[in-house]
């Protein structure tokens, strides 16, 4: 979704801002803009559409300014056009603001400002901010002994309701940029005589590894010499920059045609890194506690739940959206199977407005690749407010989620650029195995030999994934036969039901083919009505407790002439007798099978979407992190 960047230093700001904005493209956007201070004058350039449109404007105007802010906007209030693109200015045209998040009381503020004589030109909730600062600045210049602009910003932001991050420049102070964070994410990067700003630290990491993260309700006054931090009352906050590991955040396709394909292939490594961090050896107890250096992360990291707390958990409540929600559904099977603790999985956006039935014996787990998904964060904070213990599983230790819980498992996937989640899914599911085994160890729920065996099995999974990835060409040929389908059904039972949902989501997201996932047993309760010879049905069937029943459900589909596709185990002769196409997977324990069965489905979606010429890395209408409810 929206992205904020900034630059201040000896170089021309426009190319730096563009380069920062390029790093944020993956988040999804529909317009972009910059504000620079050019020879003492504020200049705003913005354009709807791709960054290339903004680049054309910048190439035309060739600003030489060395200070500026930039933005990529994903429309929420007002259509994606030039006018609604950020930055937004005040009536004097001297203050420019870029904004992520929502100003919830913008209508009331807009009415107030309009009545006071301000002219607001966009349909956005953002524009009120520049006008509020304008008003406060006028007053502060007369009243304040201190720094008028800083005080004006403090006063203006106190009037805002909602969660937001802001970047602000004023032509009166071309030597500074202001950054404001309130329940959002914003980081300042410190270089040598230059400073950077970004709502996603990925944009800054290409220039420097020294970062300062703004915490809640903080303002940073950024100059070429560094940043001074204040709370909303102007109290100085002493915080030093942290040195971060830049490598996992390098954005590169590494020779792959698309980020999506690269990320599918990265799964064995991200799984090994994620599990390896917590499981040193199957013989050794799992350790989820924080490491001394924060695991090289920029942000919180590690699980601080005490043994007493872990032993007191009576129920687990998982909140997440989309793919992360399906990882959570797999997590339910895993935790219930290994720990025998009842688990509920909630679509995070469905939690709002409901009676919270949680207490201090409940562990609420938020699962979010980005750690910024507004629905997930809202559900999670409601659970915390109801007294539940809380824990996050995220790929971004520098995210908002990491700020609001002391218990964080970090998936070591590196940056996931493609909008469609792949490697984060398997790494999240891997975290659930690790967590379940950790709880089982702490609560002595299983004999040590069984825990040892399960750990061994888990650690073998990346090698199985590699075997599937090595069959990519066969999967490609098998997949494109189905590229002309208009509808596709995915079904699985038990622990592979969430994989069916994920398979369907992947296909529709990137190929735009309508697809639905079902619990295989549900087919006969309705969905079977849509089946005919034109509808491919993908069944996930692995040996185990639900094998026979899943095959029976597949027979029901076959009897309706559906085109039959399976993800099935090598050498499964019974599957051969039912399915037209089989994506074969190596033998795997049913309990660990989601980590394997999902791979052919990811590849199938990728090859179909690519065959159809779709924008696989940035599918239409989608954003990588959905920061509005
Ligand atoms: C699907 C996808 C989305 C996200 C969902 C949650 O490919 O990417 O469904 O899984 O928006 O995002 P996070 O995990 O960042 O909370």
Structure, described:
The protein is globular, with a radius of gyration of 26 Å. With 629 residues, the protein is α/β, with parallel strands linked by helices. The protein contains 19 helices and 26 strands. Strands 3-2-4-1-10-9-11-15 form an 8-stranded antiparallel beta sheet. Strands 5-6-7-8-12-13-14 form a 7-stranded antiparallel beta sheet. The model has no long low-confidence stretch (mean pLDDT 94). The two termini are 12 Å apart. The protein has 3 domains: 3-243, Aminohydrolase, N-terminal nucleophile (Ntn) domain (Glutamine Phosphoribosylpyrophosphate, subunit 1, domain 1), CATH 3.60.20.10; 259-465, Rossmann fold, CATH 3.40.50.10490; 472-611, 3-Layer(aba) Sandwich (Rossmann fold). The longest helix has 22 residues, at 448-469. Fructose -6-phosphate (F6R) binds next to helix 10 and helix 16.
Query: Helix/strand/pairing class, anyone?
Result: alpha/beta
CATH topology descriptor of the largest domain: Glutamine Phosphoribosylpyrophosphate, subunit 1, domain 1
Distinct compounds present:
fructose -6-phosphate
Low-confidence stretches: none
The count of β-strands is 26
Distance between the termini: 12 Å
Strand order across the largest sheet: 3-2-4-1-10-9-11-15
CATH class value of the largest domain: Alpha Beta
